[in-house]
Amino acid sequence: MTAQKTALITGVTGQDGAYLAALLVAKNYRVIGASRRASTLNLPRLAALDVVKDIELRTLDVLDPTNVARIIEEVAPDEIYNLGGQSSVQTSFQQPIYTSEVIGLGVLRLLEMVRLVKPDTRIYNASSSEIFGHVDTLMVSEDTPCQPRSPYGVAKLYAHWAVINYREAYDLFAASGILFNHESPLRGMDFVTRKITATLAQIACGGQQILSLGNLDNARDWGFAGDYVEAMWRMLQQDKAEDFIIASGHKHSVRQFVEQAGQAAGLDIVWQGEGVNEVGLERKTGRQLVGVDAKFYRPSEPDALIGDITKAKNQLQWQPTVSFDRLVEMMIDEDMRRARDGQVWF
User: Fold this and answer.
1) How far is Cα 201 from Cα 311, in angstroms, rounded to an integer?
2) Of the residues 42, 146, 188, 301, which has the fewest C-beta atoms closer than 10 A?
3) What are the beta bridge partners of residue 175?
């Protein structure tokens, strides 16, 4: 019988952490879930997937290397999945130094502590499509040059290269998943996708608010978080540590996301005006459902990129299973249920 593996997940209370914890529990891992200390531990995502009872919870702060070293020594993980950190691109413009400390130097501290304490641990690092930023091609691969356009992207790129450096210099099994946008019903309200589905669900259930957004023409390669954590796990089961793009291979605009979500909620949305004066109206009644507010525009935006997942398909035998339309339907269905039940989540 194969010995039970131990996995340490940082950021376990987030969207990806919850889905990954559920996946690893199903694979009979001993799962140690780590998160930053807070006055109230945020467990609703883990509870929604019914895995709270199946994992051990620890406090871990990547800003404190002695804390990181102590946890690694005590837990002795076979695998570490680093999913924690400041996760909002928009927030990174308001908190660039904190973002850089947690995302960039936080990964460096983790790598160094693994090297010193338990160098046979396999490490997954959550990189991001934001490292690419502005490029000369629509579809990007693992070899595409990077020009990040936000403090978040810059910090992720630092962490990405730190992983490569430790892999080459110290022979650590350290790999980065260059994940494009991935969503789910467990997404937080500070992300535009969840803001769209939660607000439209409230409107569909009788609410009178208006969905206020930034640039409707912004486009992203969106996939399902539950698919993407499977790719994370597969990356650490390889014979050799490598970096992989994980994406859907398709892009859709914010406007298309709104239209698809509206349709799933029973709202037929039509558009009038341009730029900051554009509004989304309910076709039947003429009531305004969507508006544009310049305060939601970012100082700079990455290009609308698509991820080339050829390498992941060939080497990981991975590809997404949930389509864009189905993803939006899943999110709307759950937010409609929450709206009807009077629940406010995340």
Assistant:
1) 38
2) 42
3) 124
pLDDT in tens, 297-332: 877 666 788 999 999 999 999 999 999 999 999 999
Tracing tokens 């864009």 back to the chain, one arrives at 324
Could you give the CA distance from residue 21 to residue 31 in angstroms, rounded to a whole number? 7
Residue 257: Cβ-neighbour burial (10 angstroms; 0-12, 13-18, 19+) = buried
80 CB contacts (<8 Å, ≥6 apart)? Answer: 7, 8, 9, 10, 72, 110, 114, 121, 122, 123, 124
CA 346 to chain centre: 14
Q: What integer best gives the mean pLDDT of the chain?
A: 93
Cα of first residue to Cα of last residue in the chain, in angstroms, is 40
Bigger pLDDT: 179 vs 84 = 179
- What confidence score (pLDDT) does residue 299 get? 77
How far is CA 132 from each of CA 153, 193, 303, 330, 332, rounded to the nearest angstrom? Answer: 8, 21, 8, 29, 30
pLDDT bucket at 124, cuts 50 / 70 / 90: very high
Provide the pLDDT for residue 39.
42
66: helix, strand or coil: helix
> For 7, phi and psi rounded to 5 degrees?
-120, 135
pLDDT over 60 at 1, yes or no: no
In this structure, are residues 241 and 173 in contact, taking their beta carbons and an 8 Å threshold? yes
DSSP characters over 182-234:
EE-TT--TTSHHHHHHHHHHHHHTT----EEES-TT-EE--EEHHHHHHHHHH
Dihedral sign computed on CA atoms, order 121, 122, 126, 132: positive
Q: Are 222 and 327 in contact (CB under 8 A)?
A: yes
pLDDT digit string, tens, across residues 197-227: 999 999 999 988 899 999 999 999 999 999 9
If one counts every other C-beta atom within 10 angstroms of the C-beta of residue 343, the result is 11
